[in-house]
Each structure stands twice: as structure tokens, then as C-alpha cells.
Amino acid sequence: MVKLGALGDVVYAFPLVSAVKAHRPKARLTWIVEARLAALPRLHPGVDEVVTVDTRLWRDLLRRGRWASAWSEFRGFARAVAGRFDLAIDAQGLLKSGVAARLTRAPIRVGFASSDCRERANAYCMTRHAAPVGAAHALVKNRGVLAALGIPSGDTRFEIRIPESDQTWARAWTDAQAGGSAAALTTLHPGAGHPGKRWPVERWLAAAERLAGAGRRVVIVAGPEDRATVSEAVKAMPRPAAVAAPPTVGALAALLKRAETVIAGDTGPLHLAAALGVRTVAVYGPSDPATAAPVGTGHTVIKHPCACGWVPGPSFNRRCAAGFACMREIQVDEVVRAVGVRGL
């Protein structure tokens, strides 16, 4: 199976593995993923092997004019996957994922309908396509791929297995850094892969302060890209919140699993929390809840109309003419109320 990234997209491909393994228990399943996310597919017990590809490295080498090195990396990946598989499933819909599937030389390569691919050239790399579904959630699109293979989708099962070492880290960290009580956490994740999906940091801190003042045990989870900024910003809080930096994706999952509520934008940890069965409050700006809402029940999505006139669709609005004003329209009171704490 080809699902290169990002974190949330990879999580939503877990039910594909569950369905394939339920249909063919003895099938050997290999997952092709970006190198930076290599540990994530291993959280599913049905994944037998993970093969990594580093497309960021390839692009970097090309930008620096190191054509021979880029070609060597590309050729190494092609040799690692060529001729090994009977079937390739592309659950991404990008040109690069289509190329990865094509390089396997699998006689059957199944992907989305061309109209459902973010990059339609992907369809030329496939031998079979799912029926078009339009602007639909990732889970719906993935079920279409299963249908094209005659595999029943059944119930949505993520089957995330968190290693005991990561659970031990999460227990130790929360005991030492987050109050040491048995009370459940309210976990905030301010980061996002795209600037337009980021709620202002000062509002995250204001929400954290309000929740802590109402007796909640608050933890802020910061990714590598914003850890320094968040750690410095919390120092100005009257009651600085604990800032967690999980060392692995399994540790991140274990920490999110311990939360009563996870508050985040349209980003990987939000969708990972939802897949783990944790209640979420989603702060959405240029994302369409119809295609990207957290899966399951009990979630709250806060979304204001887009002043730029953007019409929701299969991918979020990357080039907002209004400077992502919809995200800034979201107020701290809204988020605090969604958690279940009235304005103080």
C-alpha cells in the first residue's frame, strides 16, 4: 500500500489495512511511506513491512544541482520495491504516490478516480480506479478503493497498538509534569503543517489559562517546528502550562490517549486522537469539515464562513485572499465553551 503522508492522512489509511487483512488474513502487507513517518504504520498490527521513501531529500538534492545523488536515491527506492508485489493500493492520489505505485511493477495498481485525485496525473499510473465520490471524507474515498477490489469495508477499525515503552513514557511524563493526579488531561496542540491552519498562539495560551483556571489539568503538545516558540510563550502565563515534546509518534499517541479532550486545528495529532477514541475540539479555518472532520462521535468542529468566498472542496484553501481571516474569527470563548467550561 502507498500512503506517503501526512500524519493525519496516514492515520485514515489504517482502516484500509484492517479491511484487507480481514478479507485476506494470510496476505503480506507492505506500507510505502515517507521516511519521516516510518514509525507510524508500525502502530498497526496488520502491517508486515514498512518501506520508506524520502521525496523531500530528492527535491533538496535536485534544488542543489546534485542530480547524480538524486538519481541514485530514486534508483535505490525503485530497486527496493520492483517486482515484489501482486497488488498496489494508492490511497494518496498524488503524482509522487502514483509513481511509487508504478515503480512496484505490480500487475494490479488501484487508486482513486482521476476526478478525486489532487493531481490527476496519478490516474495514469493505475490499472484500476475507484468510482468517483467527489468532495468526500478520506474514509469514504478509501472505501471506494476497497470496493474496486471487491473487499468489504465493514466497520471502521483503526487498530492502533501503542508500544508499552511509549505508554510508560506517557505515564511518567504526566505524573512528573502535569500534576501527578488521576484527573484526565485537556491537551492542546497549537501547531499545523500550513500557516493558514494555525490559530494565533496567544489565543491558544489564553484558552489554556482559562481551562487551568477552571480546574482542568492542561498540557500543550508542541511539535519540533514550534516547540521553541511555544516553550518561550508559556513563560508569560500566570500559571505556565506544561509543554510536552513526545519523542516518538507512539509516545504522542500514548499522551493523546490519556486526554479527556484534545483541542487542535486540522492537523495530524487531532485526527490521531479521534482515531484513538478521544473526544476532540477542532479549530478549523481553511479546511472543509465535510472532508476533513475528526472521525467518530462526540467531536466539535468550530468553523466560521470564509470571507474570501472560498467554496469548500476536497482539499483545504491554500491561497486565501483574505489572509485566513476565518481562523482569526474564532474566539477563545468559543473554544472554552466547546470543552465544557463557560466563560469566566
Describe the 3D structure.
Helix 12 links the parallel strand 10 and strand 11. This protein has helices at 7-11, 14-23, 55-63, 67-81, 95-103, 138-148, 164-177, 201-213, 227-233, 249-257, 268-275, 289-292, 325-328, 332-339, and strands spanning 30-34, 49-53, 87-89, 108-111, 128-129, 185-189, 217-221, 242-244, 259-265, 279-284, 300-303. Helix 2 packs parallel to helix 6 and helix 7 packs across helix 10 (249-257). It has 344 residues and is α/β, with parallel strands linked by helices. It is globular and about 60 Å long.
Could you give a quick summary of the protein structure above?
The protein is of the alpha/beta class and 344 residues long.
Overall outline: globular
Strand content: 5-15%
SSE run: HHEEHHEHEEHHEHEHEHEHEHEHH
- Mean pLDDT across every amino acid position: 91
What descriptive keywords fit this protein?
344 residues; alpha/beta; 6-stranded parallel beta sheet; 3-stranded parallel beta sheet; 14 helices; 11 strands
